[in-house]
């Protein structure tokens, strides 16, 4: 008979069924559409379509995201301790699917009141609802891979499948949406309403598919019942999480990197129209190229990481992203299509490496912590990680909104009318210089990350041995 250690080793080498990876990964389509559809359009929509001053629009987007300070830890610890025959996480996927789709539709069907502050207040309410819905789905969803497998490289494989669906969802949010807006009239509020309702349907279908197809996924039991109050439990769990040096290093990398990405994303549609003199159809070609590049490089980068390590793969992706950002400083009005497409191909490499490696490293950290402490904290870890992602998504539009206001951007004009001068400088600052600077900071922080496969295997072996000793003592 195999020993417990041998049985554990066999289990860790088993690959998950492709059908399960596809099913779980499909939820990323809806999440990517939900996130990128809002982040890529929200500043332009609120400032130029709803006619809210750019600084106020950026401030409202930022304040609505602050609700995640409360909701992220609550949902994270709640999903850690939730008990259900369907697992701890899957019920949240059901609730988040419905509320997420509704929230997306509400945002882009927002009315424009005569008083811009009333419009801003309405946007704040629906964006707050959106933030809560996104949290309910995404935190439990992103916690699932840590439960689904113990295999070091299988975690990268899972997220490579997810990366494909992220690419497809981002494709719809960037290329698809831009083509529709260009065809219907990109300055017409009714066009955004059509996009909002149509995307909401796609979000609902995708996220529900992930709910149904993960019924067979392995899930672990939550922490034992505690006599502490709910608030005390949240504080206790997050004190444990934030004391993890590997995790603090990883979220430092993600904060710096994503702050650049989100700043660029908030300004990108303006930059294409204002500075490059291009329409949304060219922006759609850019998005299509990014999607193709991402799908091609996802499996290649996983193989690269298996040979050279996750940290080195992350270095490559982050470096590519810096050079990509700086390349926009060389662009000018009427930039040739070939150079735009080439940049998009490099974005695919950077985006894939950053997302896949970061999430694979996160699941490594979660499992290492569980092996060391004997407590499963997937939700708590993912909640803090997700909050950093969403915080940068709030700060990015805030930076761009104030930059445009400071540059004298006139939001009463149609946004496809070039304003030049300081506006172009503010946009270049947002899509090139600032992202490159933040990328360098991310690489510097990453240099201190040192959680390896060998360390994980040692922790797992020690945990198995301790469990065996405890069983013998009890018997």
UniProtKB/TrEMBL annotation:
For whether the record's keyword set contains tRNA processing, the answer is: no
Which PROSITE patterns would you find in this protein's record?
NA_GALACTOSIDE_SYMP
User: Which stretches are transmembrane?
Assistant: 22-49, 55-79, 91-108, 120-139, 160-180, 192-212, 255-276, 282-302, 314-331, 337-362, 383-406, 426-446
Q: Which SUPFAM superfamilies match?
A: MFS general substrate transporter
What main location does UniProt list? Answer: membrane
Q: Where in the cell is it found?
A: Cell membrane
Tell me which UniProt keywords the record has, alphabetically. Cell membrane, Membrane, Transmembrane, Transmembrane helix, Transport
Q: Which InterPro entries match?
A: MFS_2, MFS_trans_sf, Na/Gal_symport_CS
Protein's membrane topology: Multi-pass membrane protein
Question: Pfam families from the xrefs?
Answer: MFS_2
- Please verify whether the record's keywords include Glycosyltransferase: no
Family that this chain belongs to: Belongs to the sodium:galactoside symporter (TC 2.A.2) family.
**Descriptive protein name:** MFS transporter
């Amino acid at each position: 008979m195999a020993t417990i250690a041998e049985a554990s080793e066999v289990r860790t080498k088993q690959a998950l069924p492709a059908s399960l990876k596809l099913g779980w990964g499909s939820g990323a389509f809806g999440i990517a559409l939900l996130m990128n559809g809002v982040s890529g359009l929200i500043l332009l929509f609120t400032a130029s379509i709803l006619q809210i001053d750019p600084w106020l629009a950026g401030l409202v987007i930022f304040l609505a995201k602050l609700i995640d300070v409360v909701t992220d830890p609550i949902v994270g610890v709640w999903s850690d301790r939730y008990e259900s025959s369907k697992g701890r996480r899957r019920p949240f996927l059901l609730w988040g699917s419905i509320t997420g789709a509704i929230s997306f539709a509400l945002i882009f069907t927002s009315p424009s009141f005569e008083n811009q502050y009333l419009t801003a207040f309405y946007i704040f309410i629906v964006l707050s609802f959106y933030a809560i819905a996104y949290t309910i789905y995404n935190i439990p969803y992103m916690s699932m891979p840590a439960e689904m497998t113990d295999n070091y490289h299988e975690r990268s494989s899972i997220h490579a499948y997810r990366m494909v669906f992220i690419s497809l969802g981002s494709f719809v949010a960037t290329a698809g949406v831009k083509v529709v807006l260009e065809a219907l009239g990109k300055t017409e509020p009714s066009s955004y309403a059509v996009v909002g309702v149509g995307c909401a349907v796609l979000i609902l279908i995708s996220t529900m598919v992930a709910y149904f197809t993960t019924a067979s996924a392995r899930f672990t039991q939550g922490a034992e019942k505690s006599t502490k109050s709910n608030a005390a439990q949240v504080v206790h769990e997050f004190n444990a999480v934030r004391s993890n040096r590997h995790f603090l290093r990883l979220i430092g990398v993600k904060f710096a990197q994503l702050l650049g990405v989100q700043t660029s994303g908030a300004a990108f549609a303006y930059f294409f129209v204002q500075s490059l003199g291009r329409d949304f159809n060219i922006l759609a070609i850019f998005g299509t190229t990014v999607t193709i590049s991402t799908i091609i490089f996802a499996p290649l980068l996983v193989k690269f990481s298996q040979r050279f390590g996750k940290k080195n793969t992350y270095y490559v992706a982050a470096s590519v992203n810096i050079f990509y950002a700086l390349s926009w400083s060389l662009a000018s009005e009427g930039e040739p299509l070939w150079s735009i497409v080439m940049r998009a191909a490099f974005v695919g490499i950077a985006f894939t490496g950053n997302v896949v490696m970061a999430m694979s490293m996160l699941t490594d950290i979660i499992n290492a912590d569980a092996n060391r402490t004997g407590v499963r904290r997937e939700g708590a870890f993912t909640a803090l990680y997700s909050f950093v992602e969403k915080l940068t998504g709030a700060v990015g539009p805030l930076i761009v909104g104030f930059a445009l206001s400071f540059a004298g951007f006139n939001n009463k004009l149609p946004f496809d009318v070039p304003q030049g001068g300081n506006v172009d400088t503010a946009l270049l600052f947002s899509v090139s210089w600032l992202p490159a600077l933040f990328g360098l900071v991310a690489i510097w922080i990453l240099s201190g990350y040192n959680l390896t496969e060998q360390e994980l295997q040692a922790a797992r072996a020690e945990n198995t041995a301790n469990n065996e000793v405890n069983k013998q003592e009890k018997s």
